[in-house]
Amino acid sequence: METESVEDKWATEFLDDCEAVRELVELQVSLVRAQEASERRRLTCRLGDLMALLRRRHTAGLFKHVKFFGFAEAAARNLVEEIWASLPAAAKKYDSRRGSFRNWLYKSHAWAEIKRAKGAENRYHNALEVCRLQNFEAFVSPPPHPVDYPLRAALEAALRRLRPRERQLIKFLYFWVPPLQKAEVAERLNLEVPEVKRLEKVALRQLRFLVPKDFSDYFRG
After folding, report:
1. 37-68 and 17-33 helices, crossing angle to 10°
2. What's the mean pLDDT when you consider all of the chain?
3. Residue 33: Cβ-neighbour burial (10 angstroms; 0-12, 13-18, 19+)
4. 177-180 long-range contacts, CB within 8 A, separation 24+
5. CA distance linking residue 113 with residue 119, whole number of Å
6. Are 124 and 72 in contact (CB under 8 A)?
7. Predicted confidence (pLDDT) at residue 202 exceeds the cutoff of 80
8. CA distance readout (Å), 203 to 41, 100, 161, 169
9. Among 91, 135, 152, 166, whose CB has the most other CB atoms within 10 angstroms?
10. How much of the chain is in helix, strand and coil states, percent to nearest 5?
11. Which residue pairs from 87-93 have beta carbons closer than 8 angstroms and sit at least 24 positions apart in sequence?
12. CA angle 169, 146, 137 (to 5 degrees)
């Protein structure tokens, strides 16, 4: 058995990406059907070998690809791990006739995870810029920082100085539970989506200007 395992690992190194992914998909189907514990262990071990091969070949490039989108190093490493963790379930979507595995990994599978993470990160940082306000705990649970009451008062005062429509827009986008999407805000305020985006940028810029300089550290991403 030990000799077979070594030979399996040696053979794995010579698989190209397409073959490795195809076998990865087949192994998962076999794993679901396997009845014997020994067979399940063998299939699981083989699946691990294939994932290790793909990780060795592509992790460094994938990390650079993720970093390109502005993630900090620790966040990028975590996201790369999430991408690999979700790969076995997504591997059946890869079609070798439409391009290389690397191309699919970066532009399809990883891109879906990057969009999800980037959207969450942008919403979180924008919320920090606007908030530490009343109901902060309502949409960030648990709150990453204790509520800062002097900052809360400063931001409440700044929000009161916005025009009513911009103040309502910020409320819908960041303090509604759950926060509304821009299309929903557009419908409620009788605006077009591009106008919602423009007003959001204007309102955030005004809030950065209106909050006292003592709190400027809270506005740095």
Report:
1. 140
2. 76
3. exposed
4. 177/135, 177/138, 177/139, 178/139, 179/123, 179/139
5. 10
6. no
7. yes
8. 57, 44, 10, 9
9. 91
10. 80, 0, 20
11. 87/51, 87/54, 88/24, 88/28, 88/47, 88/51, 91/21, 91/24, 91/25, 91/28, 92/25
12. 40
pLDDT in tens, 59-113: 999 998 888 877 778 888 888 998 999 999 899 999 888 888 888 998 888 888 8
Helix (H, G, I), strand (E, B) or coil at 16: coil
Residue 7 to residue 24: CA distance in whole angstroms: 18
pLDDT in tens, 130-173: 554 444 434 333 333 333 455 566 677 777 888 888 888 887 88
**32 neighbors 25 (Cβ within 8 angstroms):** no
25: closest CA among 109, 88, 84?
88
Question: What confidence tens digit (pLDDT) does each residue in 32-63 have?
Answer: 888 888 899 999 999 999 999 999 999 999 99
